[in-house]
Design a protein that fits this description.
The chain has a single domain (2-501), classed as TIM Barrel (Alpha-Beta Barrel), CATH 3.20.20. The chain is 44% helix and 14% strand. The protein has helices at residues 2-18, 42-45, 58-64, 80-94, 105-108, 118-133, 149-155, 162-178, 191-201, 225-247, 249-252, 272-295, 300-306, 315-321, 352-356, 377-390, 413-431, 476-486, 491-501, and strands at residues 35-39, 98-102, 137-143, 184-188, 255-261, 264-267, 327-331, 335-340, 358-361, 395-399, 404-405, 436-442, 456-457, 461-463, 472-474. The strands form 4 sheets. An 8-stranded parallel beta barrel has the order 1-2-3-4-5-7-10-12, surrounded by 5 helices. A 3-stranded mixed sheet has the order 6-8-9. Mean pLDDT is 92; it is low at 1-23 and 489-502. GO terms for molecular function: beta-glucosidase activity.
């Protein structure tokens, strides 16, 4: 086994030397204060789900009821909780400048509010210090979906305004304990699609929806709950940002952002209808969060089509939300084509999709064997859209990457091609004035994927989930990214390093 693995690596290294040496672009093409990294999230990478005082999050409950495609869960996953030092070393070898990860709220504060768990505190202190000592910036997400189950049980989590106080108190602990070493904080990951998965379709926890929408949920109301959850998320974000400015900014000089899932949307045809539909779809997907944060209210078309089903901001809430994001994290993977669907506005009852009144399509010819369609110009497209619509706010690309089946070859040429194409497009956007400050691949390791479990992966490193020590192996994409980050001159060193390590 080991002999085979080493031989495979040797072949990969030789190939990498022959061809893929990031000739076209390198890190040097980007500003020196631009930051390049890779990411993960707590539930997807940590494992140790029942160790040292952690209590279940809504994801533990969901996976343990068999709701993931392959019936798997994050109980063990990559066990980064115990292997963080080894992983930080891989990050150093790869040349990462930053690592994006999230904190497990129910590990740090097991009851959702109140006493801090000393073991949880110790873990994040150790991870953050290890990163900082190795020269890697920690970029921390406060909540990557894994709300403590106890808060879901007590008041239905995001459906209650009580969440604002608890989320702010949790953030207060994070800023107080870790803010001396962490300067980039993201409050929430992809709330604009998460609320749809969780409250409209019900395929994400807490798994709520109502007929005829979604997948046979036992509770929920698809027509109103996504709007209510979003409203409480925006108020929570704003409250956390206000706390930071009042209590920590002067001393810690950090930044508070929020993350948004960002399709690049293109009209399916050049008819006026499809072009207008595309603007409307952007207002629903991106404007739903960015308009309140930049301008203080939801887009007009969203308010009009959702009517009384979307909550309103009071004047003081509006003032608090507006301007409360120092940066936006964008997760960009794919381009979608938009067709007008005006008839959906006649439907009753109507959910978010109905209110948006569009049909989303892929171009089927562009989807090879389960991978994401390769349309790298979408990166520049979505960055131009945000620049021109919102006055060029600071952006981090928080996620971008290619999916392959987990057992695919370490020779992940399609991922290399994807990353190279999208980073080239990112460079075009930067050169055209987009205020992008950083880029993170998803994901550093093969992790527990929220929809597909361990069947498909995005990692630069393969994780052998069947081996007792969950051994990590670099894929070709890890070498490619490393060469890109280090510049060609140091590429042979990095390969030698890998060979000696594995
Ligand atoms: C919902 O449940 C019905 C009856 O059990 C079943 O026939 C149907 O396939 C389910 N629909 C979905 C989307 O799971
Ligand atoms: C959802 O909420 C709306 C508005 O309150 C209400 O009219 C509708 O009956 C609810 N639907 C369900 C399935 O509870
Ligand atoms: C729409 O117009 C743009 C710009 O003229 C062009 O690049 C694109 O190919 C057209 N799209 C379709 C579907 O015709
Ligand atoms: C990889 O996994 C897929 C589905 O999970 C399976 O169909 C295929 O046979 C596997 N390939 C190998 C080489 O194990
Ligand atoms: C470059 O930026 C300018 C100004 O924002 C914009 O008008 C132009 O369309 C952009 N170019 C591309 C290729 O997106």
């Amino acid at each position: 086994m080991w002999r085979e693995v080493c031989w495979t690596l040797f072949i990969l290294v030789v190939r990498a030397k022959d061809g893929i040496t990031a000739e076209a672009i390198s890190r040097e093409d980007f500003p020196s204060d631009f930051v390049f990294g890779s990411g993960s999230s707590a539930y997807q990478v940590e494992g140790a789900a029942f160790d040292d005082g952690r209590t279940p999050s809504i994801w533990d409950t969901f996976t343990h009821s068999g709701k993931v495609l392959d019936k798997s869960n994050g109980d063990i996953s990559c066990d980064q909780y115990h292997k963080y030092k080894e992983d930080v070393k891989l990050m150093v070898d790869t040349g990462l400048e930053a690592y994006r990860f999230s904190i497990s709220w129910s590990r740090l504060i097991p009851n959702g509010r109140g006493p801090v768990n000393p073991k949880g505190l110790q873990y994040y202190n150790s991870l953050i210090s290890e990163l900082v000592n190795q020269g890697i910036q920690p970029h921390v997400t406060l909540l990557h979906y894994d709300l403590p189950q106890t808060l879901e049980d007590e008041y239905q989590g995001w459906l209650s305004q009580k969440i604002v106080k608890d989320f702010t108190a949790y953030a207060d602990v994070c800023f107080r304990e870790f803010g001396d070493r962490v300067s980039h904080w993201t409050t929430l990951n992809e709330p604009n699609v998460y609320t749809l998965g969780a409250y409209d379709m019900g395929f994400f926890p807490p798994g709520r929806c109502s007929s005829p929408f979604g997948f046979n949920c036992t509770e929920g109301n698809s027509t109103i709950e996504p709007y209510i959850a979003t409203h409480n998320m925006l108020l929570s974000h704003a409250s956390v940002a206000r706390l930071y400015k009042k209590k920590y900014l002067a001393k810690q000089n950090g930044f508070i952002g929020i993350n948004i899932f960002a399709f690049y949307l293109v009209p399916f045809t050049n008819t006026t209808e499809d072009m207008r539909a595309t603007r409307r779809a952007n207002d629903f997907y991106i404007g739903w969060f960015m308009d309140p944060l930049m301008f203080g209210d939801y887009p007009e078309i969203v308010k009009k089509n959702a009517g009384s089903r979307i909550p309103s901001f009071t004047p003081s809430q509006s003032r608090q939300v507006q301007g409360s994001a120092d940066f936006f994290g964008l997760n960009h993977y794919i381009t979608q084509y938009i067709q007008d669907d005006p008839d959906s506005l006649n439907n009753e009852p109507r959910d978010f999709q109905g209110d948006m009144a569009v049909k989303l399509t892929f171009r089927a010819d562009r989807i090879p064997n389960g991978e994401l369609p390769f349309i790298p110009s979408g990166m520049q497209g979505v960055l131009e859209y945000v620049k021109q619509t919102y006055g060029n706010p600071p952006i981090y690309i928080h996620e971008n990457g290619q999916v392959t089946s987990h057992n695919a070859s370490l020779n992940d040429m399609s991922r290399v091609k994807y990353l190279e194409g999208y980073i080239q497009s990112l460079l075009q956007a930067v050169r055209n004035g987009s205020d992008v400050r950083g880029y993170f691949t998803w994901s550093f390791l093969d992790v527990f994927e929220l929809l597909s479990g361990y069947k498909s992966s995005f990692g630069l490193f393969y994780v052998d989930f069947n081996s007792p020590d969950l051994k990590r192996f670099p894929k070709l994409s890890a070498y490619w990214y490393s060469n890109f980050l280090k510049g060609r001159s140091s590429s042979s060193n990095s390969k030698d390093q890998y060979l000696s390590d594995h």
